[in-house]
């Protein structure tokens, strides 16, 4: 995992703790919901960064390689990620 992803996740964790505190304090529900949406957006962006890295490294290697089994495995994994996105 890249340092960039680690930093993003640390930021998200901090933000999520803030949301937890808001909920514990009984803050206005809409404000809590907006913060949850911000966390969701940050997670989605982090997921994009991880996927881009995977495409740039693992998938590129699998396509260039000569091992058909590895290529099929990588393609199957990618399909599973996209199927999960569309649920």
From TrEMBL:
Single GO biological process annotation from the record: negative regulation of DNA-templated transcription
Protein name in the entry: Transcriptional regulator
Lineage: Bacteria, Candidatus Chisholmiibacteriota
InterPro entries with a match to the protein in the record: Metal_Tscrpt_repr, Metal_Tscrpt_repr_sf
Top-rank taxon: Bacteria
Pfam families for the chain: Trns_repr_metal
GO molecular function: DNA binding; metal ion binding
